[in-house]
């Protein structure tokens, strides 16, 4: 069944808002192109972010995540002769992986924000006045919703990584002599490195789709798409 067409009453009252949203749409066109180029660069083998060399660094840091830290007394390390001086194990985060996570989280935020702005344009029926068929807009909106859902799932992957790594860390602290726990820490960091690459590939594809929607809206609004 054909979805009902949206109608905005007293469109003059919304003119300032509509102009601002249309400006956002044209800005997003340029922003998505820049984002695609940036993600391509991040995934390039010559770049030091997501290549094999950086994976080796992440593996090394994972092996060094479990460290001995001296006990502090009054914010000072106890002397060796002090009988109460003890060391305890601490699980450090993988610093190199944290850098990659922050980069990916920023790209996730940027995409979600831009996709939401375009959805707002569709909801307010701004595109329809450019003679674009409503059914096409409806399909675009569904496409945006699906992409946002997948990216939200990727955000959960980041939270799950921290949760799983914490649980492995707890096992190491409880039973540090079991080397399999230490190996699990290395494996989970390696695995998440590749998951971050997949998330970036998804973001690249979704930005291409977002660019296509905005490009068609701006340049082919009076033609059959």
How are the secondary structure elements laid out?
Blueprint: H1 15-43, H2 52-63, E1 66-70, E2 72-73, E3 76-77, E4 87-91, H3 95-123, H4 134-174, H5 179-219
Antiparallel strand pairs: 1-4, 2-3
Helix pairs in contact: 1-3, 1-5, 2-5, 3-4, 3-5, 4-5
Keywords: Proteasome
Pfam family, one: PA28_C
Protein name: Proteasome activator PA28 C-terminal domain-containing protein
What does it look like?
It contains five helices and four strands. The chain is mainly alpha-helical. It has a single domain, classed as Up-down Bundle (Four Helix Bundle (Hemerythrin (Met), subunit A)). A two-stranded antiparallel sheet has the order 1-4. Strands 2-3 form a two-stranded antiparallel sheet. The longest helix has 41 residues, at 134-174. It is elongated. It starts with 14 loop residues before the first helix and ends in a 6-residue tail after the last helix. The model is unreliable at 1-6 and 82-86 (pLDDT under 50).
Number of E-state strands: 4
Mean of residue pLDDT values: 79
Q: List the uncertain runs.
A: 1-6, 82-86
Structural class based on helices, strands and sheet pairing: mainly alpha
Quickly count the domains: 1
Named CATH topology: Four Helix Bundle (Hemerythrin (Met), subunit A)
Give a quick account of the main beta sheet: strands, pairing sense, barrel closure. Answer: 2 strands, antiparallel
Looking at the chains present, what oligomeric state does this protein adopt? single chain
List the total number of helices: 5
Portion in strands: 5-15%
- How would you describe the shape? elongated
The rounded Rg comes to: 25 Å
Tell me the CATH superfamily.
Answer: Proteasome activator pa28, C-terminal domain
Query: Which strand order does the major sheet show?
Result: 1-4
Give the terminus-to-terminus CA distance: 21 Å
In the CATH hierarchy, what is the class? Mainly Alpha
Fraction in helix: 55-70%
Element order, helices and strands?
A: HHEEEEHHH
Organism: Rotaria sordida
Family: Belongs to the PA28 family.
GO cellular component, one term: cytoplasm
Protein name: Proteasome activator PA28 C-terminal domain-containing protein
């Amino acid at each position: 069944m054909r979805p009902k067409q949206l109608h905005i009453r007293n469109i003059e009252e919304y003119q300032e808002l509509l102009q601002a949203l249309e400006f956002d749409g044209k800005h997003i066109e340029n922003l998505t192109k820049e984002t695609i180029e940036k993600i391509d660069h991040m995934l390039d083998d010559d770049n030091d972010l997501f290549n094999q060399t950086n994976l080796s660094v992440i593996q090394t840091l994972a092996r060094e995540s479990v460290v001995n830290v001296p006990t502090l007394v009054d914010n000072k390390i106890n002397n060796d002769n002090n009988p109460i001086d003890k060391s305890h194990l601490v699980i450090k985060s993988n610093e190199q992986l944290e850098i990659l996570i922050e980069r990916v989280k920023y790209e996730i935020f940027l995409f979600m924000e831009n996709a939401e702005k375009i959805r707002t344009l569709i909801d307010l029926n701004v595109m329809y006045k450019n003679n674009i068929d409503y059914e096409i807009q409806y399909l675009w909106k569904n496409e945006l919703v699906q992409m946002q859902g997948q990216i939200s799932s990727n955000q959960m992957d980041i939270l799950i990584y921290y949760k799983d790594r914490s649980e492995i860390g707890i096992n190491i602290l409880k039973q540090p002599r079991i080397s399999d726990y230490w190996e699990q820490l290395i494996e989970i960091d390696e695995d998440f490195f590749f998951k971050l690459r997949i998330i970036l590939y998804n973001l690249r594809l979704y930005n291409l789709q977002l660019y296509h929607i905005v490009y068609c809206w701006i340049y082919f609004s009076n033609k059959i798409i």
